[in-house]
Records
---
Amino acid sequence: MDAIVKNFPVLDDTGRPTQKEAEEAVRVLLRWAGEDPAREGLKDTPSRVAKAYREIFGGYDLVAEDVLGRTFEEVSGYDDIVLEKDIPFYSHCEHHMVPIIGKAHVAYLPSGRVLGLSKIARVVDIYARRLQTQEAMTAQIAKAIDETLMPRGVAVMIEAEHLCMAMRGIKKQGATTLTTTFTGAFKNEPAEQVRFMTMLRGFK
Ligand SMILES: [Zn+2]
């Protein structure tokens, strides 16, 4: 699993261009697309794009372990599957910087401790708001939860549409890519995997 879990550098501001430089780069891309960046309607576009980039790629400023690390809660002996399903996310493929739109389903088998329910969605967001491949993102979410919460197992399934496939290249709309990562009991015990799938598909 480690091979595809890239260790993203979390940049501090010293590694970053200035807002002005980012805006200039947007003007270059506008000209590259055939536009006139001086046109009235595009006047504020470079600054809007630069700001939007900080938001949609805000995951580089966040560390999943920080979010997970403070969130343990004691539960009175609950040790069965906790499944958070249909977590919507928007990411961007690292090959074309075009959106990936999908849903993440994340489950774990607690070992004495559980996560606050919003934390899993936040972890999905942290990895989604980076340039991604779906495979890496799936593994990263599983790894972060596995290493921080140390549950008996983690199961992550992502289903997503890659707009780079729909809008360009082979232009296949509506194709969905599914990826999974299983750790611990979900990996070693087929019955647990089946329960995960059944919970996922059983109650729509
Ligand atoms: Zn792509």
Note: Strands lie at 72-74, 82-93, 99-109, 113-115, 131-132, 153-162, 177-182.
---
Amino acid sequence: MDPAKSHLRDLLFGQMKAQILRTGIKLGVFVVIDTEPKSAEEIVTTLDIDPDHGYRLLRALSYLDVLTESNGMFSLTSAGEYLTEDHPHTFKDYFLFEVSQTNSSLWPHLPSSIEDGEQNTFVREFGEPLFDHLDSNPEVATLFNDGMESYSRLHGAEIQELLNGIEITEKSHVCDIGGGYGYLLCTLLFTHQSLTGTVFEQPEIVEHETQHLATEFGVADRCSYVAGDMFEAVPSADVYFLKHIIHDWNDTQAIQILTTIREHAPDDAQLVLIEHVLPESSSPHFASLYDMQMIVWTNGRERTPGEYASLLEQSGWEYNETTFDENDLLGAVKATTMPC
Ligand SMILES: C[S@@+](CC[C@H](N)C(=O)[O-])C[C@H]1O[C@@H](n2cnc3c(N)ncnc32)[C@H](O)[C@@H]1O
């Protein structure tokens, strides 16, 4: 087949593939197979699913290269291992977030949003902006927050690589603004054994179960969770991290957040934004795809290093540099307090 045609076919069938994977996750296929190869009969019996449909699902999952079949026995491929619950870098919950009903109901608004330039699909669909909707819908909030933790877990290695170049003295106090359940902070405290840190989050998250990661990484004695509104006030810290925060907001709101942090930071503070940073050139980049998700979910956008530098400099921060991980998927935009 003409490669152009098969390329289009693959794009079209992307949504079908995602639904097949979702079915495998939902029914527990990856949990049942886990580390031991299993026959189709064992799998369908354990899951109590229809044998014929079950086998057809396993066959399709093998085509998608998350399972492999050998002599009638199914095993997980290395991609399939990331879909298990207990993989340290599990992709499972982020996957379920992306294929959720909430997400699916937003994308049909993309054409009208592109046409009229109004970036409010959440309001069009649900009558309220994203974070208000999460406040009033605990099930969607859990889907979202679990998804964010999973996306952080997935990028664990890339983030460690990005943070290698950041000066953190062992005495520093670090603050993860909008840190979700605290995956980034807890991994930092795990790596730097005398560091202390704060996850700053909305009250709904802090009141919810937040300590599971501090316990998992054995850092509960050095980690605190503080509730508040990053538009109003934040704790004082030596180093601030904002991972996937500024891309949620338009320029005016982003400047307001960064200015609030500057007002509460000591004079020699550092600030690091971790984002899907767009390249300055027009070369194709994953961040341009994620930027569409920002239209659909938020009123923010993905930005280039120059655009981040401009926001930072309008908020009292001196832009230093942007570094990228090896696969060029994530960028760390680094800044320090602007000299008086
Ligand atoms: C896209 S998530 C990123 C979470 C986390 N940093 C990560 O990368 O997994 C955005 C986070 O910002 C938090 N947030 C939104 N509005 C906030 C506010 N006004 N003050 C503090 N946190 C806020 C949300 O609760 C959410 O956890």
Note: The chain has two domains: 3-81, 158-337.
